[in-house]
Amino acid sequence: MALEKYQADHYLVLSPDKVSAWEVIRLLWSKKMERKAYNYIIIPESIEDRFLEKGLAISSLSAQKCLLHAAEPMKWFGEKLEKWLNLVSVNSNIFMLLLNKLRCKVNDVPDRESDAFMSFIGHLDSRVKLDENIQPGDRRYNSVLAAMAAKLAFENKSFVKKTVEEHWKGFMFYDQRVNMIVVAFRGTEPFNAYDWSTDADISCFENPEMGKIHGGFMKALGLVMKNGWPREEKEGKKLAYYCIREVLRKRLEANKNTKFLVTGHSLGGALAILFPAILALHEETNLLERLIGVYTFGQPRVGDDKFKNFVENQFDKYGIKYLRFVYCNDLIPRLPLHYPPLYTDFGTCIYFNSCYQGQILDDEPHKNHFSKFGWIRRRFNALLELLRSLYLPLLNGRDYREGLALILMVRFPALIFPGMADHNPLDYVNATRLGSIKIYEQVESSRNDSKKNN
């Protein structure tokens, strides 16, 4: 098999660490700065495309520069905030913490790697049990399971193990009730500037068979342009893609009837769709035949039209379902900016509004987040979400009660920054549980029909 199949023969690589803020501005007219800021062998055909690509590059570099400068303060703030939230949690609530302080009986903050320590995401949505009203056989089950697994992937190893063993009866984990393995990729961590920078990056590699692919997401899988994407890992390496593939091979060989599902939220969603795409490039037929589907939540764009066609053809061939969940004004699914020569959408888009009313669409509304009077609409939705946090538990039970941390740190800031607030996993979990079952009947039945035809 030709080595070129596993190589990137064209690329566009931005280098925010090599240019200053002033040099980013000078990109508008300076060829010298262009060569310093990004390397490329992808040459747009038209002047219009070259101009647009340069504009996207400047926007991306600017965002990344800001994030890189904020990296250490964000990390420090995130660690302090998580420590405070865990301190309040182990003492039951803020009032008990004050009482325990007066009594000199304050419970200590658990170790960051213990099964009692929760991430910031975990404190926004502390639910760990699957919805008891949605059991195996329910059309919503796979989506609900995937959403909870994508949320759980933000936690540490000990917390994940405890949750799966005590509540899920089974990270990669095995759901014995449906004989299925769930592979969940961790998403963009709220206070990790490098994760956010990866989301904003438009760097890409072009493979002759797959098309253009987001460079940062490929690197997160351990697949970099310099070494190509060989089918077998070089000795001594422990890269994510190969480790996950090897564990899957062993577990699926142990039980010929076991299937698997891939999921992730945010950055994790991007990795979730890239993982089976690389499996297809490597012609991993045995694994692809056992893949039930890819379920992503708030996933950023990962490739161009050629990549879209490659994945769709492979998924059609093996009868694999690709469901891309988008909640309301979530900004991340609309990044990098929609520009088919570099990045475009595909898969079945299941879009939910602020009332968790779902639609099956080809693309999410307002695909670049911008629209006429959009700022009014987004802030009105944010107000509705704040009001919804008050009445939702009255309609659907205590499981949907939103904590003080979420209301203060997500719902109120959403009145100013609605696009970021709508990215939190809680709304995706709620959407899979409360959305109309008719949507899931439609998308899941189409998957079953596809599997039968194959």
The sequence of SSEs as H and E is EHHEHHHHHHEEHEEHHEHHEHEEEHHHHH
Largest sheet: 7 strands, mixed
Q: Calculate Rg over CA atoms.
A: 22 Å
Tell me, what's the shape? globular
Percentage of residues assigned to helices = 40-55%
First CA to last CA: what distance?
Answer: 26 Å
How does this structure look, described?
With 454 residues, the protein is of the alpha/beta class. The chain is built from 19 helices and eleven strands. The strands form two sheets. A seven-stranded mixed sheet has the order 3-4-7-8-9-10-11, sandwiched between helices. A four-stranded antiparallel sheet has the order 2-1-5-6. Helix 3 packs antiparallel against helix 9 and helix 7 runs antiparallel to helix 18.
